[in-house]
Design a protein that fits this description.
Layout lengths: L1 H10 L11 E9 L2 E7 L6 H4 L9 H9 L1 H4 L3 E8 L4 E2 L5 H10 L3 E4 L6 E4 L4 E4 L2
Parallel strand pairs: 3-5
Antiparallel strand pairs: 1-2, 1-3, 3-4, 5-6, 6-7
The protein binds zinc ion.
Amino acid sequence: MLEAAKAVALSGPGVGGRNGTNFRIGAVLFSGNHVISAKHNELKTHPKLARYSPWPFLHAESSCILHAGFDASHGVDLAVSRVKRDGSVALAKPCTVCQAVIRQAGIRRVFYTTDDKPEVWNVADGSFAAAF
Ligand SMILES: [Zn+2]
């Protein structure tokens, strides 16, 4: 899952830093082994995010959910990978805005990369743990 999200991240434009090339983020929505949607970070904005944030730039996680629709997102898993310029992965824990979107969509679990081992957020009980 996280490898797929990493591939998606690498297909997107870089974001962050003065040149916008510090890192890339990709997210993939999974139902079992079936990919529902796959999106990377975008610099463009989305009107739905403007309801949650004064900085409505479209993050990969929210983009994935908005693309799939809230109904299709209910009860499925999301994987998020952040890839640094040197190709290594880093913390991709969803921001508070994306966490609100994830909760509202009813996502079951969110797997994300860290600087070390991947972690999983069990959305229903709010717990965070090592992923594998
Ligand atoms: Zn976010």
